[in-house]
Recover the amino acids of this structure.
């Protein structure tokens, strides 16, 4: 009973001289509700089930006693969309005790195919004699007003069912930036001012430097639903679709949650693995078509990491077929030690600066020789204003001293007392600032002596840089 099967007692009467009936006559003897696939056809004749409705059917199959009917209707939708048997099994696998090879799936798929073949659900009619359409599924004008909001993971950046490309020269921090995105998507907090909408599982396909990817990811909080698949994948081969989908399903089974984001680092390596040429539109399009099939089967956001060419102003290295297929392209440039991630192409958004960031080294631990194990990650500094950009040029101690001076001026500042000070400035007694620096951890050593030395050094440097002014034991911010 768990899967909703109901036993019935049926009595058969055998006639001595049975009358001949046509098939359509027999069908019309019963109500349409006796035929589940006919009922399904009528219910979707206005345009078919949406992706959300299909997912809702699959989720309902987990409820006691509802597996059979929910799975039957879901499979009918998939058959109507023209999905292959393998695609249907992969989509249903997480909801079946036996996974993709669950024996109860076979009769449901066979039954749907006998009734509808490859007919699209939007073209099905209640007539049993209707011929299956061999055309492309249609969405009609009268249904276009049924706009559906994007299924955001990080609003304005990562949406399910879309593809983004993150490109830059070697060492620009593109993989570090995507690692930061991955950690926030899996953990759930907002990312650099962009709102988090859903916490999802992530699979990071590291086609190169898998150990580096894992080192960076260990800087996040514990117990995140993130898996790294290290190894080269031939993205030109249609077989890569099954490989990637099965890898995603394995991660979902391990963590008990759906995967909403996958990273391919780097996209270029996957083309080269199949003997392809990223300069050829044919190879780019073949690769992107395979990844699009993965997306159709899983609904994930696909984030591709790639390279710019020698001339960064020309964008992604290789054929421009790559840019034509993605929903958003982000290009990373470097000036001094500040990286700028700029949206250079987006289908339904605004181009411009996505974020600015710095990369900083962190120590993860020590190896067997006692040497530090380090990696580079995106710093928490937000560099989205002129003030933040200006302070990005300061070292860590100078920046911390300025932050503590800001706090003192807000909490204890007062207007300058005489005309000997710049007009309109707010000042604070320098000893109050020094106490704040001693308490605020200006010196990493943590001792009073080291903190006093660090404060004197910061004051000297900031005066020399004309960042602060000091007169008669009062201090103020002179330049940002």
């Amino acid at each position: 009973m768990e899967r909703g099967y109901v036993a019935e007692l049926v009595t058969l009467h055998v006639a001595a001289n049975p009358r001949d009936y046509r098939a359509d006559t027999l069908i019309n003897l019963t109500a349409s509700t006796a035929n589940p696939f006919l009922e399904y056809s009528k219910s979707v004749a206005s345009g078919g089930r949406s992706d959300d409705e299909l997912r809702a059917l699959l989720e309902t199959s987990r409820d006691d006693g509802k597996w059979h009917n929910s799975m039957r209707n879901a499979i009918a939708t998939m058959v109507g969309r023209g999905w292959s048997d393998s695609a249907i099994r992969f989509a249903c696998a997480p909801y079946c005790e036996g996974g993709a090879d669950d024996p109860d799936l076979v009769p449901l798929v066979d039954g749907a195919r006998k009734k509808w073949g490859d007919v699209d659900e939007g073209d099905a009619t209640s007539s049993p004699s209707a011929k299956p359409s061999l055309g492309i599924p249609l969405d009609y004008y009268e249904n276009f007003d049924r706009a559906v909001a994007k299924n955001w993971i990080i609003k304005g950046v990562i949406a399910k069912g879309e593809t983004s490309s993150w490109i830059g020269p070697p060492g620009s921090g593109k993989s570090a930036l995507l690692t930061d995105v991955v950690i926030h998507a899996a953990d759930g907090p907002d990312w650099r001012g962009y709102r988090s909408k859903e916490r999802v599982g992530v699979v990071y396909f590291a086609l190169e430097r898998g150990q580096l990817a894992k080192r960076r990811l260990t800087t996040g909080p514990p117990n995140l639903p993130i898996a790294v698949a290290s190894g080269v994948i031939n993205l030109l081969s249609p077989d890569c679709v099954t490989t990637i989908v099965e890898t995603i399903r394995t991660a979902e089974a391990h963590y008990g949650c759906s995967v909403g984001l996958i990273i391919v680092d780097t996209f270029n390596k996957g083309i080269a693995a199949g003997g392809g040429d990223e300069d050829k539109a044919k190879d780019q399009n073949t690769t992107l078509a395979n990844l699009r099939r993965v997306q159709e089967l899983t609904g994930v956001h696909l984030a591709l990491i790639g390279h710019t060419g020698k001339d960064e102003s020309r964008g992604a290295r290789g054929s421009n077929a790559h840019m034509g297929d993605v929903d958003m392209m982000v290009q990373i440039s470097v000036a001094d030690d500040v990286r700028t991630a700029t949206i250079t192409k987006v289908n339904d958004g605004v181009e411009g600066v996505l974020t600015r960031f710095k990369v900083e080294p962190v120590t993860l631990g020590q190896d067997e020789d006692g040497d530090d194990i380090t990696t580079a990650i995106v710093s928490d500094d937000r560099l989205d204003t002129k003030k933040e950009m200006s302070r990005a040029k300061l070292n860590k101690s100078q920046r911390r001293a300025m932050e503590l001076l800001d706090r003192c001026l807000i909490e204890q500042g007062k207007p300058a007392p005489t005309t000997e000070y710049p007009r309109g400035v707010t000042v604070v007694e320098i000893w109050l600032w020094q106490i704040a620096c001693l308490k605020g951890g200006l010196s990493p050593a943590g001792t009073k002596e080291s903190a006093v030395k660090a404060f004197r050094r910061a004051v000297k440097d900031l005066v020399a840089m004309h960042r602060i002014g000091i007169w008669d034991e009062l201090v103020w911010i002179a330049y940002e």
